[in-house]
Design goal:
Blueprint: E1 2-3, E2 10-14, H1 19-30, E3 34-41, H2 59-72, E4 76-80, H3 82-98, H4 105-124, E5 129-131, E6 136-140, E7 146-150, H5 167-170, E8 173-174, H6 184-193, H7 215-223, E9 229-232, E10 238-242, E11 269-274, E12 279-283, E13 290-300, E14 309-314, E15 321-329, E16 332-341, E17 349-354, E18 357-369, H8 370-377
Parallel strand pairs: 2-3, 2-5, 3-4, 5-8, 9-12
Antiparallel strand pairs: 1-6, 6-7, 9-10, 11-12, 13-16, 13-18, 14-15, 14-17, 15-16, 17-18
Helix pairs in contact: 1-2, 1-6, 3-4
């Protein structure tokens, strides 16, 4: 395996206004590629400036991206994809929470916006590749196939949120930051050496379209007015009420507002969310142990696997790896964990790895808890 061909390409560099995408664009240009910068206007109301380290897609961000492009010496444009982003990412996010699931909007954005809407437009205009500041690596095989691998530095690896990319999309993807062992401080130092004003700009955190970080408030504005529901224990006993099941996530401990403690005095956690009857079920932390799951809508970074296989899996963007066995049956991925895991919720993505290679991803549909598995074997 070798790194993706370094022949000069026409490259469209997605520039968010942050330091990573600016350095990625600069490296692509320095490598001899014909680079054009583009900032995606994803907000229908970008008038407010960034607050602290949260948010993106503001007027400030587009200006920062333009200034970086000027310093690099590349053409720069702003493309309005706000309507597509609203439909494919924001509305999907709200609908998933309303259905009692926990989505990852970054995966959806990569799948539907950066490597679908943006890539399709780029190819139509004659570009060869889309460049981003993600930390991951595309590797070219001797047969011309492409694989997605983890970044050289695991501490910064972002391959999890790219696990939705198929081989066609990988053929037109460029990640200049993925194969260098550099810390974020070194990336900032590089940006400063290049004269990029974003060198000291704070990273954006949380969900980009929720600038203040208040996810529950964002959902309440869109899903508020629902009838209050019950908070139940595992036996079905009512422990309290809530103002909307959308305000909870599997594994949540804080903010349950239960009036009296558990009999054993231990904390309780959200175990299940039922939008059908608007109830939230809570219980002990041990009840969160998941031994198996099914996942739907699989997307493969290359040829789909055939038959059962052994892999490692990642279940959240900043989570660790865990051993699994997995098999695709009738377009549904069946996964069994080597050891029980916690904090697994329908709607999340599971990404499978073979060493550093990303095999593919799927959306978690159902989970099997330790007690359920034990009961089934009785």
């Amino acid at each position: 395996m070798t790194q993706t061909s370094q022949r000069p390409l026409r490259v469209l560099a997605a520039m968010s206004g942050g330091v990573d995408s600016a350095v990625a664009a600069a490296r692509a240009a320095e490598a001899g590629h014909d680079v054009t910068g583009v900032h995606l206007a994803l907000s229908a109301n970008p008038q407010s400036f960034r607050t602290g380290a949260r948010g993106c897609c503001t007027i400030e961000d587009s200006r920062d991206a333009r200034r970086a492009a000027d310093v690099i010496g590349i053409p720069f444009y702003v493309w309005d994809l706000a309507e597509r982003f609203r439909e494919d990412v924001v509305e999907d996010f709200v609908a998933e929470y309303e259905a009692g699931r926990t989505p990852n909007p970054c995966l959806r954005c990569n799948e539907k916006i950066k490597f679908a809407a943006l890539l399709d437009k780029a190819l139509a205009l004659g570009f060869d590749a889309v460049c981003t500041g993600h930390y991951a690596t595309v590797v070219l095989g001797d047969d011309g196939s492409r694989e997605l691998h983890r970044a050289s530095d695991m501490a910064k690896d972002q391959s999890y949120v790219l696990g939705v990319l198929d081989e066609r999309q990988l053929a037109h993807a460029m990640f200049p930051l993925g194969d260098t062992l550099t810390t974020k401080d070194e990336i900032r130092a590089e940006a400063e050496r290049r004269g990029l004003a974003v060198a000291k700009k704070p990273d954006s955190h949380d969900i980009c379209f929720i600038a203040d970080g208040d996810t529950q408030g964002f959902l309440a504005d869109r899903l508020g007015g629902k009838a209050e529901g019950d908070i139940l224990d595992e036996s079905g006993t009512k422990l309290g009420t809530h103002e909307g099941a959308f305000g909870f996530t599997i594994g949540q401990r804080k903010g349950l507002r239960i009036g009296h403690p558990a009999a054993d005095g231990k904390p309780r956690y959200v175990l299940d969310i039922s939008p059908v009857n608007n109830t939230v079920t809570v219980g002990p932390v041990e009840a969160l142990d998941v031994t198996a799951l099914t996942a739907i809508r699989p997307r493969w970074c290359g040829t789909p696997p055939s038959g059962p296989g052994t892999y490692t899996a990642q279940l959240r963007a900043h989570g660790g790896e865990t051993g699994v066995s997995a098999e695709l049956l009738d377009d549904t991925l069946h996964v069994t964990f080597t050891e029980p895991v916690r904090g697994v919720a329908p709607g999340q993505a599971i990404v499978l790895y073979d060493g550093t290679r990303v095999v593919g991803s799927a959306t978690i549909a159902t989970t099997v808890r330790r007690e359920t598995a034990a009961a089934a074997s009785d």
